[in-house]
Design brief:
Shape: globular
Number of strands: 38
Distance between the termini: 37 Å
Amino acid sequence: MPKRTDIESILIIGAGPIIIGQACEFDYSGTQACKALREEGYRIILVNSNPATIMTDRQLADATYLEPVTPEALAAIIEKERPDALLPTVGGQTALDTAMALHENGVLEKYNVELIGANVDAIQEAEDREKFKVAMEAIGIETARGGFAKSLVSADKVIQDIPFPVIIRPSFTMGGTGGSVAYNGEEYHQLVEIGLSASPIGEVLIEESLLGWKEYEMEVIRDSADNAIIICSIENIDPMGVHTGDSITVAPAQTLTDKEYQKMRNWSIQCLRKIGVDTGGSNVQFTVNPETGRTIIIEMNPRVSRSSALASKATGFPIAKIAAKLAVGYTLDELPNDITGQTLAAFEPSIDYVVTKIPRFDFEKFPSASGILGVQMQSVGEVMAIGRTFRESVQKAFRSLEVGLDGFEPKETEYRDLDLSKIRFASAFRLLKVKQALEAGHSIADVFEQTKIDPWFLHQIQKLIDVSATFSSSPMGEGRDEVNSLNQLKRNGYSDRQIARLWSKTEDEIRQLRKDKNILPTYKVVDTCAGEFEAKTPYCYSTYETENEVTALDGKKVMILGGGPNRIGQGIEFDYCCVQAVFGLKEAGYKTIMVNCNPETVSTDFDIADRLYFEPLTFEDVMNIVDLENPDGVLVQFGGQTPLNIANRLKDAGVHIIGTSPDAIDLAENRDKFGKILDDLKIPVPKWGTAFSVDAALVVAHEVGYPVLVRPSYVLGGQGMEIVYDDDGLKAYVGKAALVSGEHPILVDAFLEDAFEFDVDALCDGIDVFVAGIMQHIEEAGIHSGDSACVIPAYELTSKSRKMIEDYTKELALSLNTIGLINIQFAMKNDVVYVIEVNPRASRTVPFISKVIDLPLAKLAAQLALGKKLVEMDLEPKSKNGLIAVKKPVFPFNKFPQQNVFLSPEMKSTGEVIGFDKHLGSAYAKAEAGAGNSLPEQGTIFISVNNMDKVKAIPLARDFQELGFEIMATTGTASLLTENGVTARPIFKVGEGRPNVVDAIKNGEVQLVVNTPMGAQAREDEYEIGRFAIRYKIPVITTIAGAQAAVRGIRNKIAKQINYQSLQEVFG
């Protein structure tokens, strides 16, 4: 059926901020959908609150709303834009839930908006676990034994017929949020309560435990004519009990018999038919009992999912693009396959390689986390690697993770005695311990008994151990068969560094030997058809075979090194910069080569760069591509810390790095050299010193004066950064910091308490500097810039100080010979402007500021790197029509309920949202709503502040009271407020008596918490307050400045001063 002509405009809902369980795979799917539907001539209206995505660049839609993805905001935008249809399937769970809310509150019916891609009945039947269970049983597909509960009483009834352990899954959540395993009756009630509060409809499914069963996924696409194809099968190495997003997964499935595969294939298609997914992609999950072969369906997602992104990148099949076209009436046999250009989308992809995905965790940011994996997702990113065998691809995946591994073997320092019973519990690096157990002589049967990892995978790991043992001594110089030894190791995925360690050589020696013996990687093409047709889109991976399917690109070309896996401190913002750099280079007439290993991103989409190498971002892998392609230049400034880690070695190897030199980037990190530049320029900087030992650190701290900010050098995301108040704190810190950065010193800075902080992004061509904007942090100094809300334009800055910041920025950019982007952080105290940090590279604020001033900074920076000058660019920031923008971070505290919620110099946020409006209050209220914290308009505010903040709390409490709120406070704060004419109800702290503040939160008596931390020692009651506020979805504000902004936001909400404008209206 050709495309529909009865609809003209389509509203696409984005996924909002990056959170655990919903990452940038929805930027990739939303971007594909926008492009696919616009090329069909539809008017696209996009709503998404995430400024760090390519999707929210205004060129991708006809009306781009950087507004909260909430039913209230969408109702107002629908009333204004009057779309004919709404596509809810490319924005993750957020988009589905919002679309369902718009259906339930009558907005879709009122404005005659049709849901396309998935209908209401299909969404309800797939998402409501009870309806799904009934639907599957009706067509003879088995589900797990269990039942539903909406209260503790009904939960007790469900458990009567099922033995412990049981799995608890909340309805309508994503990333397994609120899910758990109960092993006994005592913890069962507590876990059911958590599950009920996590579910938006207050319902949990309680099921028999399938722990230890094998888990599989099928990616399916179906069209309106009932054509259905399987894109690929995915197998989880970890058995059931570990969320699929946290499991190491392999595509295609390796251990299914053909009979089992066909059964799953048939059931998947039957499932889509029964649920009523008429068009688009779905993900269906199964589990198989390894002893009996009993197969059960677990769930299906009637939308593009995280696994869809993986399946897309694993096969080359653009699932989101095809799903969007099917939603407007096309069928699979009418759409061409973009990769071959000869086949149709109705052909099932076939692949002649193995793909391994490994998740990336950041448990060190959340010390309260146990590190044990379960049914609730905890990973913050993932890598994918392609090889001809599982052994090759798993080695490449481990070295892509950027956690100090050179392949599938632990760091040398981490060989500890192994307790076999410990590997029963899944953890981030359990597979390394499995390998260690096999190396120690434990049998495959013993390891299987403990882990329930399929013996096939254990045999593959044993083969890697055998290969290491066979070639463990160096044949170099002994006349033995070096060529065969190297070939065997390379075909099994061994990196040059692993071989160097095995043979007691250096990496450079192994690389030279390989080149001398002509043992070079061959590159294969991902083509959807296992080589049956020639691929039109060059999407490649390396292996060690005889036939090379790739020749170097012709003409002028530049290679861009991507950011690798998402993690806290280095997220989607850097992928945004890499993609913008591609656009800039193409516009300048260059071909582009992208190197990256992150399957969730836009940069690894097959149609972004002229050539994509899906490879680890290590020196070896990048140099191999450089040797083949011989690019005119390599860009390392856009992918965060990842490319910078290898930039100097690339430069030393003769690679032409364009843009700011790695030496200048290093200079900014080297305190002594950089301190001299600041002295020469007479730019103030807080007192500081560097130290390699405890004694040296104490000397520096006494010279500088406490409190001090201590951190290792050369880290991103404030890793290992702390504010220390005394000698004991400093001694404890130095003991830990040795782990973070071995050969680099610890930096000790005077900490400027109560200072205002500013972030500046600028462009420099070596002659001129363009200051793109000055952002002011809402929170005071001492909170990592990535975790602080910030505002542009700055809201409290004199003309004199503004000029000083601009002048300092220009002087520093030129002193560092910056060519491209530079980010500088300033602090201002008592009218003195201090430089805190300088980074001559892309920063995480680049996408935010680019959206706000309507200038693509990263794209322009890539052109500066080619030699273009600022005078040739039209760089007047467009009028913002008096708009104010607030960037608000989003935190994963709901995934780590034991973690304290106070912010620190170490970054903890996973993503960000933007609030755009004419008033600071409205912009802040929108940003809070986008971050999932709707500010209350009535009720009770609980206030507990430290002694330093007590005086500031008086006008704050008065403002809340004038807005009609009641004030509740701890005894000391309550008496101070009452003495100053603000009536406050006193309440006990935790441990003082009952009812206490936590009781009030549980009883629904508190609508907003303002709780500033009590100095160096955080107390147990503060942790309890934060923990229960998150559980009961009550906003918590931990700084006075944040609370002042919230007052403004609430005032504007009550006055209904919130307007929704598209970027196209704002910028014309």
